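Subject: sequence -> structure tokens, single chain

Hey, anyone have a minute? Need the predicted structure for the following. Not urgent.
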Amino acid sequence: MTDRTETQADTAAPAAGAGAWAGRPAAEVLPGPVAAVGPVAQAEDGTAGPRTASRLRRATALWAAALLVCGGAGAGTALAITSAERSDVPGLRTQADGRWDYPRLSLPALPSGVPRPFTKGNDGEVHHADLRDLLLPAPRGAKADEVSDGGFVPVDRYLAEYEEEQREGLRQALTDLGLRHVAARAWTMPDGVHARVYLLRFPSVAYATAYKDRHLVLGRTAETPLAAGPESVLDGTYTATGKVAGTSSYVYSEPRPYGREQLRQGYVLAGDTLALVVHARKGGVPAVPFHQSLVLQNQLLG
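Reply:
Had a minute. Here:
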């Protein structure tokens, strides 16, 4: 069975666990009540006497200086809090859960009047943005793949993910269904996870759906498995929080015993575009950053 949940999202959300913390506004420094300086002696004409007036001026100056010092300290504290990293502020520390630190994400701008894929008037659910602008960026700390670094790639680059005996059949299907472009990005993280993301654009949602249904997804197993994970099965731990309404996710993982490395793969069907997200690592692939990558790529296709 497929994992399919729908939520409305018109713009890409910031990466879970990524983006700078927006600090609280600087607090206003309000002085407390000024202490009385005692009764003021008056001269015969009813004004303050010279010595008393001098003391009053001196006391007023001292209080003004004190308030400036307090105000400066308060403003400095507020500035320190608003500019500090989240983990540096006491009481705001969060337990690391393995999520990657992606840059803040946003949907690419479109010309006025051009509809997004899941809006009224766009029956083919066509993405009018440049396909390369819809690719998930690499997280901070990643080493980019020079060959697949966010540009268009030959279809052979995508087909190389699948077992060799399946490639010609997939190539013919892509030709028959009018594949327009393939964009890709890949990177390697410090812990050894090798991530790859492919976006395939078709003429409309009907063509993308036909390719997915006929050649890629079949119940609890991937109909056409990847070369690095031929025994992939449905990932029952995936929860599609934050998915865009109208999209579908199909998520698989390689069960034990796996070979030299474990592989996790997921497909996101979003209108005329089909995404393939792959994470692989020797000794096992952490689930959290893999699921995070799927959700963020889904939102970018919204």
